[in-house]
Structures are given as C-alpha cells and as structure tokens.
Write a structure and sequence with these properties.
With 426 residues, this protein is α+β, with helices and mostly antiparallel strands. 59% of the residues lie in helices and 11% in strands. The protein is rod-shaped, with a radius of gyration of 41 Å.
Length: 426
C-alpha cells in the first residue's frame, strides 16, 4: 500500500517542476503521513475493542483483582503500544530514500515504547499495592514505601535507557559514566533513601501500623495513622487536622504507640481526688453503725472490726484512750468503699490492676488516686465512664465525714468575710 502511495504521488507530481529529491520528499512524506493516520486508526480500533469486550468481561467477573488493573489504567496504557508497533514495522516502507529519517523515527519510537512501558509497570506496581491492601496483613505490614522505592528505581532505569537511546550508547557504558554523579544522586535522593531504611525498620520491628493511635509531641501528632509512605507518615489528629511526620524520624525520635492498650482489652483510669487532711479522724461507734448500712462495705466493716478488737484484746490495750491500739478511720473506710465500688462496677476490667491508694500529702491536701482499667476503650464512652465514676466518688465523700480540698472560691471568701464582719459588729 505504501509503495502504491509513493508511486501515485510521484506520477501526480511529475508534471511539476520538481527534481528527483523533492519528488522523494513529497511522495515518501505522504506515505509517512498515511502511516501515521493508519497507526491512529488502528489505535482507536484496538481501544474500542478493549472497552467493548475486555472491560465488559472484567466488570462482570466476580474477581476484584482485574477491576484494580482497570482502575490503575494498566490495560488502557497497554493499548498505547499498538500505534508504535505499526509505525516501527512499516516506517522502512514509507521512507526508503531517507535511511537517517528511518533511524530517527525508530529511535523516537523506542523512546516512546520505554516511556509507555514505564507507565504500564507503574500501574502494575500500584495494582499490586492495591491488591495487597485487600488482605488483613497490610494493616500490620504496609508496603507503600517499598512500592514507591521500586517505582523510583524503575523510572531511574527507564530514564537512563531513554538517554542511552538518544545518545546512541550502551546502557552499561552510560551507567559506568554516571559513577561520578553518585554523590549528587545520593544528596538528591537522601530523604527517599532514609525513608526507605526507616520504613523497613518500622515494618520489621512492627513499630507502627496503619490505624494505630500514636502520640509524638515533637511534631504535634496525636491521633490515628492514616498512611505510611516512603518519606512520610500521615497522622490524623483528634481535631481532624493532619500531621505529616518524616518516616525516618519515627526511628530516630521517640513516639508513643497506644496499640498495646487497644489490644489489651482495657484502658487505664488514673486520676485522683484531693481530700482535706483536717477531715480525717477515727471512726466512732455511731459512725461505724452508720457505715455498716452501706451495702458494699457491710461485710468488710464487720471483718475489720472483729480483727481490730481481737488484736487489741490480745495485746491488752486500753482502748478508752484513742491513740492506743488499732482503730478504723473514716479515710480507711472510704478507701475500702471506693475499692469495693470499683470491683463491683460492670465496666471495670477485673483481671487488670485495680487499686485505690494514697499519694504524698501536700499543701493541696491528701490525694486519693484511682488506678484501674476500663473495659471500654472508645474515647467518648471511656470519658463518660470515668466521669460517672468520679461523680459518684465526689458525691459520697461527705457521707464519710470527709471534705474535698480545693482553693477557696469567691463564695467561700464571701462567707468568711460575712462571719468576720458579724463578729466585728458584735
């Protein structure tokens, strides 16, 4: 066909005053243009067939993996190779009188093919990553950083192949010649290299996974890990802002991962309430009888009182003097009550640490700390539970003749002022 086009154009232009060289340019140029049009026609036909047949079959299949190939344009990019094959095959027939032009077109087609193959491989790598993410292991072993480094290597090799094609040199020779630029390349790709090394360490040591709640004050990060890439780790904070952390910094700097808490089945409650030390006293018989009506500590009080009386009797102690022997205090009974309250709470983890303890007294009172673990880990439910527990504790403190310690408020100061004024008037 192309020979016929060349002969037809020559016969058509013979009547013009053109020399043989000009006739070759116009006639073979027309054949080359016809080849370009043919290649585009074949491309559109191939694309039409792929969309109407292959795409339809893939969409109807129950397998999701082939849909991922379509999403990443692997098949559609493969159709880009069709026109290059047509041009590469028939270009010698269209430009027989211009061997240098044929070499130029062939080199251009080779560069085009290398570029298209890089795009196809990039889509394949992205598809492998998407397919991998469909498995549960992807949450604990993310490979996005590895896929990115493979893409970088692929594009570097592809670019070197393109340069080797354009300058007409062998790829190995070109790579050896680039040895002097290795220092520059190391500087340019410093962050990806460090990120790749950091990503491997994060993955191998299972330091962080997608979905983990991490805290890293240095970067203002406090939230869930959204993405782990070659150079960055994205964290969505609780205020919905996004913090980007360099991957390598996750290895060189410290951060807190709350995964252990999430996997343990419990979440710690560690909070104290300060009591006025002046309200602590020995329990009288009337107080013990009143406390004995509290269901949670009824048995405790009986056993404790029997134990104390037995001890005092064995040691022949004069209990008419308060400082002699052992006695229960309202603070001790209160701690026993809170401990039983927590033990009987349905949302407190019974198999983890559970205690009520005194902390070091200070000028701000005596702190009574609650150290337990909740069965509820979800943030809102956990905070509600914690608040409900301390609502109850604060409400029962006066029932043990104890007082909460707090700095004087405006109303307290006003009451004191009124008392002083009343005394002054008298």
């Amino acid at each position: 066909m192309f020979d016929w086009i060349i002969r037809f154009m020559r016969s058509l232009l013979q009547s013009s005053h053109l020399d043989f060289r000009q006739l070759d340019i116009f006639s073979e140029g027309a054949a080359f243009v016809a080849l370009l049009l043919l290649s585009f026609l074949v491309y559109f036909i191939a694309r039409f067939i792929i969309k109407r047949t292959l795409f339809v079959i893939i969409h109807r299949s129950s397998n999701d993996f082939d849909d991922i190939l379509i999403k990443n344009k692997v098949i559609s990019r493969a159709s880009y190779l069709v026109p290059s094959y047509v041009i590469s095959t028939f270009v010698p027939n269209t430009l027989p009188g211009f061997p240098k032009a044929i070499d130029f077109v062939q080199n251009t087609i080779e560069v085009y093919v290398i570029f298209v193959v890089m795009l196809i491989l990039s889509g394949v790598i992205s598809s492998i990553h998407d397919i991998y993410n469909t498995f549960d292991v992807s949450k604990s072993k993310p490979i996005k950083g590895l896929m990115q480094i493979i893409k970088i290597i692929m594009f570097i090799v592809g670019t070197l192949m393109i340069i080797a094609t354009l300058v007409g040199r062998d790829l190995n020779t070109l790579i050896l010649g680039l040895g002097t630029l290795s220092a520059v390349m190391m500087l340019v790709f410093k962050d990806p290299i460090l990120g790749f090394v950091g990503g491997i360490q994060l993955s191998q040591n299972d330091m962080v996974r997608i979905g983990d709640w991490i805290t890293m004050p240095k970067y203002g990060a406090d939230g869930d890990v959204l993405e782990i890439t070659l150079t960055t780790v994205k964290v969505q904070n609780w205020d919905k802002s996004i913090t980007t952390i360099p991957t390598y910094s996750m290895v060189t700097d410290s951060f807190q991962n709350w995964r252990g808490m999430q996997e343990s089945g419990g979440r710690r409650i560690k909070r104290h309430v300060a009591l006025d030390m002046e309200s602590v006293k020995f329990c009288t018989q009337e107080m013990l009888e009143r406390f004995g009506k509290y269901h949670l500590i009824k048995d405790y009080l009986k056993l404790k009182e029997d134990e104390i009386q037995t001890y005092n009797k064995i040691n022949n102690l004069d209990t008419t003097v308060l400082v002699n022997g052992r006695r229960q205090t309202n603070l001790g009974v209160f701690r026993a009550y809170v401990l039983e309250y927590l033990r009987n709470h349905p949302l407190i983890h019974k198999e983890m640490t559970l205690m009520v303890r005194q902390l070091q007294p200070s000028e701000k009172g005596i702190p009574i700390e609650i150290y337990v673990f909740s069965n509820m880990q979800e943030w809102v439910d956990f905070e509600n539970l914690q608040s409900n527990i301390f609502d109850h504790i604060l409400a029962v403190i006066p029932m043990f003749e104890l007082r909460v310690y707090q700095n004087p408020s405006n109303s307290s100061l006003s009451d004191i002022a009124e008392v002083l004024i009343a005394k002054e008037i008298k």
